[in-house]
Amino acid sequence: MADESKFANGAPPSVAAKSKATKEKELYPMSDWKYDAFLHTFSVLVDLFFREVHPRGAWRVPRSGPILFVAAPHANQFVDGLVLQRTLKNEAKRRVGLLIAEKSVHGFIGWGSRQTGSVPVGRAQDKAKPASGLIYLPDPINDPTLVRGIGTNFEKEAGVGGLIFLPSAKGQSGSSVDISAINGPEELRVKRPFKGKLAMQQLTGRDDIDEKGNLTNRELRGHGDGYEGTKFKLAPHIDQTEVYKAVFNRLRSGGCIGIFPEGGSHDRTELLPLKAGVAIMALGTLAEDPDCGLQIVPVGMNYFHAHKFRSRAVVEFGAPFQIPRDLVEKYKNNERRDAIGQTLDMVHQALSAVTVSSPDYDTLMCIQGARRLYNTGKKLPLPMVVELNRRLAVGFSKYKDDPRIIDLMDNVKDYNKQLRYLNIRDHQVAYAKMTLPTVVFTLLYRVFKLSLLSVGVIPGLVLFAPVFVATKFISHKKAKEALAASSVKVQGRDVMATWKLLVAMAFAPVLYNLYTVLLAVKVYQDHLWGYMPEWVPLWLVFVGGWIFFPAITFAALRFGEVGMDILKSLRPLVLCISPTSAYSIHKLRERRAELSEKVVKVINDLGPDMYEDFEHSRLMPEPSREDGALGSPKEAGIVDAAEPTPPESPRLSRKNTTRSSRAIPRNESFSNIGAIGMFATRPSSRSRSRSSSSGGAFGSGGFPVSGFTSLDSKEGFNEASNKIRAAMRERGQLRRRKSGLSSDGES
Predict the structure, then answer these.
(1) Could you give the CA distance from residue 271 to residue 253 in angstroms, rounded to a whole number?
(2) In a domain, 303, yes or no
(3) Residue span of the structural domain in which 104 resides
(4) Global pTM value
(5) Contact between 560 and 465 (Cβ < 8 Å)
(6) Exposure winner among 140, 221, 709, 739, fewest CB in 10 A?
(7) What is the largest CA-CA distance in the chain?
């Protein structure tokens, strides 16, 4: 036990001693027992809100030494932090202090952040206020950093080091630039030119602007005729000295810091530009202590409908990397801009390897549609879904101007429109293969199952209905407020999950207490219509009520999520029976088969150009061979974020995995009745091998092997061997500690 507490942070003795020496100087100290108690208590919220949270690549996280975790995309305002901290503690035994917006360190969120050693950060966007007047660029070609105003008062409202924020428009986030000098009430200079087509349109009012924001008519020097300017916001300069001091101390003492480098939560489909703060934290730490061993670990927060209750998530950890010493030297020798820029490029590249990014929502839907079509209805583990979506997104970005890709995306977009018109999902098109008697029997059978599940759902649904109504109403209201105050959000969905949890935490105990009081009153009046024995004391009624009512709610939750899956599966069955729509769904099935062949051909044509080891780096054999539709098993596969519970990949069956790889993740520690054959809602697959998303599938949380791990080289094989030996040693030490033995076998 002494050893276990000594290395609670995963730090070796030298680092632990160093941590002890500097802990008193920390501005925002972390208490290990408070951290663990907070996570243990509130991790239940993660289990209740998410149906599945799968870690991937957690073995990459170093078990000792300072680490800067950079996580993206920031799709859930406060939930992201809880999910990241919980995953790291469970999978890597590391505690991480997060950087949290200063405006949020109040109330419950502020209390929770203090228990986990978080560092509050003032953000310019939180203090930005609408300014008077309008601004424009008087000479965008010869002097793009000069900004002029109409009716402005820069001398009173703006300050050197502050920021100018342009408004968002057309679903695009507005630009922001630092102020370098104030020349008068109606003129100032910014540190760098505004970039992007939207920003240039807002500041010049001209139409001759290409997609990169460049003016094509170089002869026209000024702004457009009659253009007066755009509205804007101003934010003061924020001193982050204490923030950097706290981060440097934590990292130099061997601790961990987590940061969302985009600067704020959002609901966009692409990564936002990274803030310079993450680079300053890494370079500043190494400038003070070059031998501290700081490593940066990218973390991909990949959600499937992040704002929805009982959704799914994959937390993926990328390969750790270190900042080259030459960049640290540049940072120390007043070449900070170059050092920070290169560091940000490294961080962005690392995050791109663990996230799925697309230019817009329609493109993302087409990418997911293409993956489903290529996958021909097979279900895959969630980590593999994320990996395949990422590879498709990268492929689209590289070949988006290729006529084959353009034609394919148009066809997939049209197919998605037909699915939306019929209000069914891609995997439900397979119902069209079933004969009419089979469809009728399946429909009646599922209605019967839904009736059985309703018995367990309705009581809890009625009791918990006020909470559902309150969470939905308040979360949508907060989303609108966040959208109005942000220049980067699209619909404000990034705050919805947080407010659903906060409202439920506050309202549910009040509601349960009300029900318990009403129960106690009824017992006091007539012993619950005479059914309650007279000897039962009132205090026991209160205890029983606090057990009974939450249990009813939890039962409704578990039965309800499966019931909803069954309910959604009824519509395609009805369509197959209806004479007016049966023809449409059968034609759609034929259309899907044609598109599947087209997707396979395009991927197999372009894949070898994109990956030199295309044949060896496939994540899955071509699944269509198993259903008899398409080519050979050597052809590559690609999968939809919206698809429910994918089973294992055909490459690695569950019977061939180790016992540890079959472990059920914590989120599924309660029996998942959706896995029981009777309650399944998908057409049966020819592959009878089934597993949860955590099971022994290649690249899943249960079998943590990266899809890009190369074992056909000596270096790759040695790296894998070393990690396996280290994991075996760690497991052996843990087993000995649990059995009360020291490392030398003495008790």
Answers:
(1) 31
(2) yes
(3) 2-73+95-122+239-263+276-352
(4) 0.70
(5) no
(6) 739
(7) 96
